[in-house]
Specification:
Elements (H helix, E strand, L loop, with lengths): L2 H13 L2 H8 L3 H15 L4 E4 L2 E4 L1 H27 L4 E7 L1 H18 L4 E7 L2 H9 L5 E4 L10 E16 L3 H4 L10 E3 L9 H9 L6 E3 L3 H9 L5 E4 L4 H6 L2 E3 L7 E10 L6 H9 L3 H8 L21
Parallel strand pairs: 3-4, 3-5, 7-8
Antiparallel strand pairs: 1-2, 5-11, 6-9, 6-10, 6-11
Helix pairs in contact: 1-2, 1-3, 1-4, 2-3, 5-12
Length: 319
């Protein structure tokens, strides 16, 4: 039995699939499967079984989950303690929803880094909504920014609101008649970034509410590409209103009027409970409430000179 095997088991149990666990760890699915197989052989129990409803824990797996989670946490704390004893900079691992990572994470982390030059080693990553709380609870990340984590997941984390925004739908620029496609919204061509496949994202919730079929959804590498295609008349795209304000003012995009829009949403900071947070995580949480951070979330392009801007590193998560 190894720490790697227990980590893989906890993530499979929490996220519900080998694929999700592999994505969270940044390894192949076969690596996770091999770790689970070795743990099964060592303990003489299947631990998790596959059914139509997904992964189900055996009685032995249910009992193991609590203990395994504690061991994983202790392993992460031991690693942090050794780094501190060696005088290494404190690690701050931040994961965020794809929208936040694309537009806000880079300028925000650069501004935070300037407050602690050389004292904090910051890495950023992108994670799905249902991964955020699990990654924090298992010490694979220190701060998660995006949708809040609900109490249904029963994780030792807290989600605190940090910034409210409005979700809108945009199309090509012009008059309302020119920009609005014909027919009901569910039949339009919808242009989305990869968060459209994340069931917990605001984009996916909107598409479900409108009854949009997969055949009417076009996937793009990021929001910027989806909005550019919408400006060219290829379809309509969900957007965060303040992040497309420049395109709206220039007439490149137009707001599409739909019942129930705009939708009020919020970015949350998800962390461990206050007494268990690292010093760097606590410092970042305080920074998120400052006027400087609020301005960067409201207008990220205005916060950092181009010569100093460092884009976020797009990884799923660390091994």
């Amino acid at each position: 039995m190894t720490l790697t095997q227990l980590n893989a088991f906890v993530l499979v149990a929490r996220l519900g699939s080998v694929r999700a666990a592999a994505s969270a760890l940044g390894v192949s699915e076969s690596a996770v499967s091999q770790a689970i197989t070795a743990l099964r052989q060592d303990l003489g129990d299947q631990l998790v079984t596959r059914s139509q409803a997904g992964m189900t824990l055996t009685p032995g797996g249910t009992r193991l989950l609590g203990t395994a989670s504690q061991i994983v946490v202790l392993g992460a704390e031991a690693h942090a303690a050794v780094r501190a004893a060696q005088g290494a900079p404190e690690q701050l691992r931040v994961v965020a929803s794809s929208t936040f990572a694309e537009f806000v994470a880079g300028p925000l982390m650069e501004a935070f880094r300037r407050r602690f030059p050389g004292a904090v080693d910051i890495t950023t990553g992108v994670a799905a909504a249902d991964e955020l709380g699990v990654l924090i609870a298992n010490r694979l990340a220190d701060v998660a920014i995006g949708p809040g984590v609900t109490g249904e997941q029963e994780l030792p984390v807290v989600s605190e609101p940090v910034f409210k925004y409005r979700l809108v739908v945009v199309g090509r620029g012009g008059t309302a008649a020119q920009s609005r496609p014909r027919g009901p919204a569910r039949q339009w061509r919808w242009l989305v970034d990869p968060s459209g496949t994340d069931p917990g994202s605001e984009t996916a919730r909107l598409l479900r509410r409108l009854g949009v079929a997969d055949s009417n959804i076009g996937m793009f590498q990021n929001h910027t590409a989806a909005w550019a295609a919408a400006a060219d008349g290829a379809g309509v795209a969900p957007a965060i209103e303040h992040l497309v304000s420049h395109q709206l003012r220039r007439g490149e995009l137009s707001l599409i009027d739909l019942p129930g829009l705009p939708v009020e949403e919020c970015w949350y900071a998800t962390l461990l409970e206050r007494e268990r947070r690292s010093i760097a995580a606590s410092a970042l949480r305080r920074f998120l409430g400052t006027p400087e951070a609020m301005q960067l979330m409201r207008s990220p392009a205005a916060g950092v000179p181009p010569s100093r801007f460092k884009p976020p590193v797009y990884v799923t998560i660390w091994s």
